[in-house]
Amino acid sequence: MAAGDADNNLVREAAAELYSGDPAGFIQRRGDLAAQARASGDAAAAKAISGLRKPTRSAWAVNRLMREDPDVPTRLSALGAGLRAAEGALDGRKLRQLSQDRRELIAALTRQALAAAGARDAPAAFQEEVAATLSAAVADPQVAAELREGSLVRPVQRSGFGFAVPAGDEPPDPAGNGDTPPSAVRPKRSAAGRRRPGPGAGKQERAERQRAERERAERAERERAEQERAEQKRQRQAAAAAEKAVRAADQGVSAARAAEEERADAVLRMERQLADAQDRLAEAKQRSRAAVAGLRDARRALDRLRKRAGPA
Questions:
Q1: Residue 301 above 60 pLDDT?
Q2: Per the domain annotation, does 46 fall within a domain?
Q3: Residue 201: per-residue pLDDT
Q4: pTM of the predicted model, to two decimals?
Q5: pLDDT tens across 137-161, in order?
Q6: pLDDT tens digits for 4-45?
């Protein structure tokens, strides 16, 4: 295996652990994993791991969902493709049905994500961020692909919902004659002198119904746009606060690491000084033993000389 592949594996394994674990321990564990990679000689992997960003709690909940249920991105993408196809074909019935399916799927997946994260009682804003991220994956295949990685850093807010339901409750006449569908045709009058309305009256009635539908759709779209702008503003504020907190935490980690390195250097210096002192102590002990032995020999020589000399 090439060195680059090894580095990539280390980073992928670290990301899998970090983005599936509780964000509360993200910073500490990221530092530990980077230190392990650095100690093993993989400086590039250590740098890449140190650059992994801490996720918000709502993004973490989505990551947990993706890692526990890898089929979720496929389901979201398939639903989005169906909605785009129905919108392109101006198939109102299909679009309304798929829109209902989207609402039900997002609600179910949001509950699943909250349960997996142990956050069933999470604040409304937290739940809205999870639901908005899942909805964005339906609207944008690129977002769905990003979710598949399970490494989301912050929730996603799509800029436009799309999938507008065409005006009119009924599709065009399948026979292709341009008249209103049979359900919209009034019954033939049986009274004398009365006659069934012609095709022109049916077209006018249909046009009025479509105009009313368009007006309702436009009002709903304006309301939705206002809500979306408010949500985007709130999301930007939350993201800015989260980024500020992350920067502060990163600065704290950097300061702690610098202090750790400084203390490690001090310990190393003291260990060297201790080793030198131990060497000097060993030498002193050896000289002391030699001096004691010399003293003992001198005393014995003195005793022998005194015995030979006899009494004074």
A1: yes
A2: yes
A3: 58
A4: 0.48
A5: 999 989 988 888 888 899 987 644 4
A6: 444 578 898 898 888 888 888 999 999 999 999 999 888 999
Distance from C-alpha of 154 to C-alpha of 142, rounded to nearest angstrom: 15
Rounded distance, CA 171 to CA 249, Å?
Answer: 57
CB 99 within 8 A of CB 83: yes
Q: What is the DSSP string of the chain?
A: --HHHHHHHHHHHHHHHHHHS-GGGHHHHHHHHHHHHHHTT-HHHHHHHHTPPPPPHHHHHHHHHHHH-TTHHHHHHHHHHHHHHHHHTT-HHHHHHHHHHHHHHHHHHHHHHHHHTT-TT--HHHHHHHHHHHHHHHH-HHHHHHHHTT---S----S----PPPSSSSPPPTTSS-PPPGGGSPPPP-STT-----HHHHHHHHHHHHHHHHHHHHHHHHHHHHHHHHHHHHHHHHHHHHHHHHHHHHHHHHHHHHHHHHHHHHHHHHHHHHHHHHHHHHHHHHHHHHHHHHHHHHHHHHHHHHHHH---
Q: How far is CA 185 from CA 44, 198, 200, 212, 309, in A?
A: 73, 10, 12, 18, 154
Look at residue 139 and tell me if it is in a domain. Answer: yes
More confident residue, 214 or 86: 86
Residues 103 and 35 both lie in one domain: no
Q: Give the structural domain span for 162.
A: 55-166
Using the predicted structure, report yes or no on whether residue 60 has a pLDDT greater than 50.
yes
Residue 311 lies in a domain: no
Using CB atoms within 10 A of its CB, is residue 60 exposed (0-12), middle (13-18) or buried (19+)? Answer: buried
Q: Which pLDDT belongs to residue 109?
A: 94
